[in-house]
Write a structure and sequence with these properties.
233 residues, alpha+beta, 4-stranded antiparallel beta sheet, elongated
Amino acid sequence: MTRKSTPLKDILPKLTAILAPLNEEQRTLLTRNATIQTYKKNQIIYAEDDEPTHLLCLIQGKVKIYKDGIGGRTQIIRVIKPVDFFGYRAAFASQDYVTSAAALEQTIIVKFPLNIVTRLLQENAQLGWMFIQHLSVYLGTADQRTVSLTQKHIRGRLAEALLSLKENYGLEEDGSTLSIYLSREDLANFSNMTTSNAIRTLSNFATEKIIAIDGRKIKLIDEERLKKISTAG
């Protein structure tokens, strides 16, 4: 990991969610103890069973939260988009990490020491409410994904994954190409299927002119049909 040259003051406007509830003294305490780090593509940000030490805020780039399962098979639980907080649930639960996090591309993260964050949470109810809302949204999303990944067929799961990536990361300037380029393995891990099944289903979607594929680039041609496949499961 290398320290990012961009000064913290240039990133502060992106940290409104955590800074807005704080008074001037609290903001100074938090920002004085914050650090900025960059991670290269595929670099581990934290690993399962590590002890959490910082609240992490993704400023730029893309991050996957994943867990290695039985037989070495990986499940991507969710993907993080800027600007968003992660890596704190385990600390609030007094646990070590039960997941791992890695950069999907070069990524910039602001790190806040958890002892400082905990102190501010005890002093500021508004900050605590912000994190309650944040965790509640994640819990709702996790509940939905649990049902989808266990009940939907392969086509439904992959369609939902593509729509989720669009919702999280948006499209390129052409208005149809996903702005995130996942490997087939990562896409399979995000959709709870084998890589071979992901490749085959993508190929079928392309043949049916639902999507177009150019290497890792995926263009959504018939989004409405993709939604129907996702809904039907």
